[in-house]
Amino acid sequence: MGILWSLCLAHLCNDAFQSVIPAVYPLLKDNLALTFAQVGMITLVYQICASVFQPVFGVVFDKRPSVWYLPLSSLSTAAGLFLLAYAGSFPVVLVAVALVGLGSSVLHPEASRMTHFASGGRHGLAQSIFQVGGNLGSSFGPLLAALIIAPYGQHYIVVFAGAALVAMLLKRPLVRWYGQVIAGRRQREKLRVELPRSGFSRGKIVFSFSVLLLLVFSKYVYMACLTNFYTFYLMDKFDVTARQSQFYLFAFLFSVALGTLFGGPVGDRFGRKFVIWASILGAAPFALWMPYAGLADTCVLSVVIGLVLSSAFSAILVYAQELLPTKLGLVSGFFFGVMFGIGGIAAAVLGQMADTRGIEEVFRICSYLPLLGFVAFLLPDERRGREVRAGR
Question: 208: which residues sit within 8 A by CB, 6+ positions away?
Fold first, then answer.
């Protein structure tokens, strides 16, 4: 548990630093006279660097594990934040967010592999602990930005760059523990210990991955809408200030963090499939209501949506890992990469839509996306796969 909570803390720090990027969008938009399309392009570049490389890094981590990957992720993030603090043009902002994205693309697949090794067999609980750190970090980022960056200006982003360097030094216990894990696995390979296998056929695995990808699409396009444009929606529709909107965004993101903690343990007990469809489809009524609600109801609905919708990803990730238990880095990198990639592309497309059709219309269109959660019923019960592997 100590290792799991250390990984949770590492994820918290990483995602807190990463979430500074969308949190300072209003500030960057004003300072550099950006359009909504350019704001979407910033997210696209960041998400591509944080997504395309994740499966590649996952394959590398499976084949060539090393204790130095996590510290390198913090170094890349720190460099990007430092550059962002002093960026005076749109191209420099793109380079800065690319470095921050690369830091994220290293941490997620590697730390997720480490979480699996430290789980003691309770993979859902372990992934939930890991994920809640990231979601807490994502919720704290806008709050810290509102308290530190909004009152004093863009240059104060450098505070987060310094904190990222401190986080790199705090990963030393994880580095020592992971060195022992790598040595143990190499010894198992020398002894030719049989590796775990999935209980499903190749065709069923491919079909299940296709369904999971559709579910990730519905969840993360909607999440991209809320995460990147919720502040603009509140300012446009309800005339709140930029600083006030950051606190509303914090409430939503904090609810996402809380909801994440429950998805894994519930999945361990009742099955991942149940958690996946209940999470995504269960958010649909609240999502459909929100575009027509007042300010107070909008904030309450965003919190409810965050609580319900957030439990899905840890269940999806563990479900996928159980389909391919010998490719943990590849699976983790792939799904984290798809998550970031879909979010980035969606942000760019939604930004264009907001420029042409208005931010309120974007929220009305995206409110239908959680209805795609019904396809989770097509997933095979993963508990049957475990029974097959056990020979029952």
Answer: 200, 319, 323, 379, 380
Helix, strand, coil content of the chain in percent (nearest 5): 85, 0, 15
Residues constituting the chain: 392
C-alpha span between 118 and 48 (Å, rounded) = 29
The owner of tokens 């807490």 is: 136
What are residue 243's phi and psi, to 5 degrees?
-70, -40
CB 128 within 8 A of CB 75: no
Query: Rounded to whole angstroms, how far apart are CA atoms 51 and 60?
Result: 15
DSSP H or E segment with residue 175: helix 172-191
Helices 25-32 and 202-238 pack at an angle, to 10 degrees, of: 60
295-342 tens-digit pLDDT: 999 999 999 998 888 877 778 888 887 888 777 777 877 777 777 678
Closest CA to 217 of 332, 339, 318, 344: 339
* Nearest one of 305, 188, 325 to 252, comparing CA atoms: 305
pLDDT of residue 382: 65
Structural contact between residues 234 and 240, judged by C-beta atoms closer than 8 angstroms = yes
Q: What is the pTM assigned to this prediction?
A: 0.69
Residue 155 per-residue DSSP state: G
CA distance 208 to 213: 9
